[in-house]
Amino acid sequence: MDSSKIERAVFAGGCFWCMQHPFDELNGVVSTVVGYTGGHKENPTYKDICSGETGHTEAIEIQFDPAQITYSQLLDAFWMNIDPTTPNRQFADVGSQYRTVIFYHDEEQKQIAESSKEEMARSGIHGKPIVTEIAPASLFYKAEEYHQKYYEKCPARYERYKSGSGRERYMKKIWGK
Q1: Does the pLDDT at position 3 exceed 70?
Q2: Domains contained in the chain, number
Q3: What is the domain range of residue 29?
Q4: Where is the Peptide methionine sulphoxide reductase MsrA domain (predicted)?
Q5: pTM score, two decimals?
Q6: Which one, of 73, 78, 72, 47, lies nearest residue 60 by Cα?
Q7: How far, in Å, CA of 25 to CA of 53, rounded?
Q8: Would you call 134 helix, strand, or coil by DSSP?
Q9: Helix (H), strand (E) counts: the chain
Q10: Among all residues, which ones are annotated catalytic?
């Protein structure tokens, strides 16, 4: 794999624990890191983020090989793992740090994201307006190590959280899986 061809995508979809696993399973995804972005505080910690006053959101940074998976395909995976109709919350998690955002790195990603959002809105599958933001990428701060690959480090806790938060129930209702 030619590392000069690796591209980045950054998505905020609520609790980053639940966003990392689906992307790690995709062919063409080289690596994922969970962290914080979109705010004004430098080098935020999880405790800072939880205050809801940093402007940051929990997010995932994805390194991907565009020869194996497209940005559009990553967006499809993003939409299938969130509720894009709730501002400043995802399932049980409430606050601006849990808002959904597509952070673009260039004009092409912006256009693809806007088209993807329009397509999702036209589908009507969620039955409500799509409120997911599209914003320019800014500094991405890697979260503390204990958050990385949480689904591997604490599988039982991860599964309880994913189920208890309402995320799984919503995905089953909307997507049938």
Answers
A1: no
A2: 1
A3: 3-175
A4: 9-159
A5: 0.95
A6: 78
A7: 33
A8: strand
A9: 7, 8
A10: 15
